[in-house]
Amino acid sequence: MILTSALQAIGNTPVVRLQRIVPAGSAQVLVKLEGGNPTGSYKDRMALAMIEGAERSGRLQPGQRVVEFTGGSTGSSLAFICAVKGYPLSVVSSDAFSPEKLRTMQAFGADLVVVSSDQGRITPDLFVRMRHEVDRIVASDNAFWTDQFNNEDALDGYAILGQEILDQTAGTELHTFCAAVGTGGMMVGVGRTLRPHLNRIVALEPASSPMLTKGFGGAHRVEGTATGTIPPLLAEGAYDEARAVEEAEARELVKSLSRQEGVFAGTSSALNVLGAIQLASELSPDQTVVTVAADTGLKYLAGDLYL
């Protein structure tokens, strides 16, 4: 089939069953490989849903500038969507995030504002300073802010991800869905679709920034997660349990994922898989845990993740 737009290439990513790194006697672990989207991230779904939702409502006018602050993948995805649709884009990001992501935004034509971090660490105050830059651009350029942390249109894109999981696992009894929380959109959107078909939804976060489990944020290096606040989209009842996962263990798991399972992904994906394996160890072999590999490992080769 010939597509009429690159936007139609978003979605329909595969689900794989892990074969070698899940301990014997555990539940099955399934992983949705979102690196197969056009920019290598599940944020393509969210970006498209936010832009098209704004178009339908009239909040975004033809040729109007779009702006967002982001840890990287949302910026890459918005740059892709805006390039295809013809909107100028300003992205506010930071040197705390992978240079591959920043370069991808520029490759699609976005204007990039880089806010300095605290020695490459992701801290709560970093997002405050990035938000100030967004406010400046909105005021000076009459830009439309997609506001990913509050934009409910994003849930529509993630609901499709959830439906794909259901369609691809037809005949398999799903017990638990787990994923790390950034904006909370994926957890809520997928959860709404999967909730009637599951026993449990578990929110994950890096143990060094345990806002959901202990009520305070902290510095970490898991891009796309744990902003140091409870995201507004993460409504009450969106998950059944929150768990903190050790970032160091997740970073080690990245290598096993690629070298034993062929799943090439980044730190947040490894956090998801590590959480899924831990949950699977508490269940029986006839049960199933499903999670998401959020993006491709190609976004992390310039750093120390794969050294």
Automatic annotation (TrEMBL):
InterPro entries in UniProt: Cys_Synth/Cystath_Beta-Synth, TrpB-like_PALP, TrpB-like_PALP_sf
Keyword Secreted among record annotations: no
Protein species of origin: Kribbella ginsengisoli
Keywords assigned: Pyridoxal phosphate
Pfam family, one: PALP
Name of the molecule in the record: Cysteine synthase A
SUPFAM superfamilies: Tryptophan synthase beta subunit-like PLP-dependent enzymes (SSF53686)
Span of domain Tryptophan synthase beta chain-like PALP: 8-294
Required cofactor(s): pyridoxal 5'-phosphate
